[in-house]
Write a structure and sequence with these properties.
Elements lengths: L17 H27 L12 H9 L1 E5 H7 L8 H12 L4 H15 L16 H7 L2 E2 L4 H26 L7 H27 L4 H27 L11 H4 L2
Antiparallel strand pairs: 1-2
The chain binds heme C (HEC).
Amino acid sequence: MKQDTQPLPWLNLPNLPLPLKALFVGYLLVIGIGLCMAGLQIMLTHGMADGKFGLSVNDIVYSYYGDRSGTKLASKLNGSMSDKAPLEVREDIIKWAQLGAPQDQWESHYKQIFAQHCVMCHSNIPGIPDFTKYEEVKARAEVNEGATISGLTRVSHIHLFGISFIFFFIGLIFSFAVHVPKMAKIIAIAFPFAFLIVDVMSWWLTKWSPHFAWLTIIGGIGYSLASTYMWVVSMYQMLILPRNGKIYGNAWAQDL
Ligand code: HEC
């Protein structure tokens, strides 16, 4: 319409000056790779929390709420360590763990049991607990309560500060898009922030009750979808759309 009289008619993704485009494209490329890595890392850490590959509600419960039905020692002795000692021995150890692994019985009895069945690996293989040491056994005999409050505060504030920066710039770049209805723009820009809050809140709620674990998944899917949408539209409009040589007018003025 009045594009000729608009100020800054080049202020839109297809017509941006090349140096600015280089900045935006470079940023989106690096952020895109970073987000893929983040997804992969979530799969490998939280995704494996319940011992099976792939992220599930169980993993989230395990990471934040823990497994309060028993101790790590018991779950391993019933699981991947079940072939390491005969049943009576394993039940004996589990009973001791349920009592809180009292130290006097360690000295008089269990030290010997562990030495016989476990220590050939658990003192030699790096990266697994050393079961010649009482403290290391004791730590696995405690009920797994999932994430700690101090751990959650640390990850929460890093997440909120760090990721809101990413969404801020993705949203700012996307605000120069053309042919996107104003309402769609507002929703796409606001969603990641809203879902980020849902995500972080869901960790705290899951720490309190396992029923909230699905909120974490919704939060994650929500901001992944919204930011992927903005990423794809922005890249397309900066790299492919300009080939038709059209002038699109001031994108911000059109959203007034
Ligand atoms: C043949 C070697 C070997 C023997 C014997 C062995 N373990 Fe393990 N254990 C491992 C390996 C390897 C891991 C790490 C992989 C895993 O978690 O399954 C592990 C992990 C564990 C863990 C989890 C540690 C953690 O904090 O992640 C516990 C608990 C455990 N073993 C208990 C035992 C007990 C109790 C015995 C003796 C009855 C035992 N293991 C005997 C090799 C062994």
